Amino acid sequence: MNQGTCLQDLPVDLKPERLPHHVAVIMDGNGRWAKDRGLPRIMGHRRGVEALKDLLRCCRDWGIEALTAYAFSSENWGRPQEEVNFLMTLFERVLRQELREMMAEDVQIRFAGNLNSLPLSLQAEIKHSMEMTRQNQGIKFTVATNYGGRQEIIQACQAIATQVQKGLLKPEEINEAIFEKYLYTAGISHPDLLIRTSGEMRISNFLLWQIAYSEIYVTETFWPDFNRPEFHRALYAYQQRERRFGKI
Ligand code: FPP
Predict the structure, then answer these.
(1) Which residue, by CA, sits nearest to atom 14 of ligand 1?
(2) What's the CATH number for 20-148+191-239?
(3) CA 155 to centroid of chain Cα atoms
(4) Which ligand 1 atom is nearest residue 91's CA?
(5) 71 Cα to the center of ligand 1, angstroms
(6) Which pTM does this prediction carry?
(7) Which residues are tagged catalytic?
């Protein structure tokens, strides 16, 4: 990871006791960032990786326990084949290159999504990085890859139905806590703050179950330009919100 782009210290106007435990990001605008500069779209994705690495470091420095990033949606296969191939290769290369750093920084990496249809070499890299970092006690970093929220809910329903069919679970025993155990994000708290870049006011099938009570922050900034001051602004805005969870 890129050293030194984030300050170790939490900015003084942020209250450590009111930081989100878990931040989720929809990293949008890589293509437009590149287009604005007359560059090919893939350059936006390259710069997007740098922004993500910096954000992960920032979260760790400022004491945020979990970060989840939407890297590739189940709908993204519909992009030009060349771009899809580039992204798959990029994910694989970044994982390989960053593993040592993640170990040094105690990051626990996980993946959310239907991983079986990813290229086999990427699946192998994913498996390796998860196994290597499983015992790490630092920030929990989840990369949503070939992820779709509806599909996640359906696969959870199928797994639960199988348990019922086998007689291991009664329908009336199914509750929210049990349901969550079948989601890709089992064992990780729900995001407190969801950030979307590039100004779009959409959820785009991301963490549909998990964001039920998340605070949403949208910035016009394109993802490659989402830096520490931007994150500071998002956290400041979050701390001004009153979270009521449906109560008054
Ligand atoms: C959205 O911008 C971005 C993506 C679909 C890819 C995001 C991936 C990364 C930043 C790389 C992450 C890497 C790892 C290893 C996790 P867009 O292409 O939709 O931009 P546009 O809306 O301007 O076209």
Answers:
(1) 91
(2) 3.40.1180.10
(3) 19
(4) 15
(5) 6
(6) 0.95
(7) 28, 76
Distances (CA, A) of 192 to 22, 25, 116, 211: 6, 11, 29, 8
Q: Please give the Cα distance from 139 to 56 (Å, whole number).
A: 8
What six digits make up the tokens of 187? 């064992």
The DSSP 8-state label assigned to residue 172 in this structure reads G
Which residues' Cβ are closer than 6 Å to ligand 1?
A: 27-32, 45, 48-49, 52, 69, 71, 76, 91, 94, 143
H or E segment and range at residue 164: helix 149-165
* Token reading at 181: 């155990």
The residue behind tokens 């899809």 is 84
pLDDT digits (tens, 9 = 90+) for 139-167: 999 999 999 999 999 999 999 999 999 99
Amino acid identity at 13 = D
Nearest residue by C-alpha to atom 1 in ligand 1:
28
Domain boundary assignment for the chain:
20-148+191-239
DSSP letters, 119-149, are -HHHHHHHHHHHHHHTT--S-EEEEEEEE-H
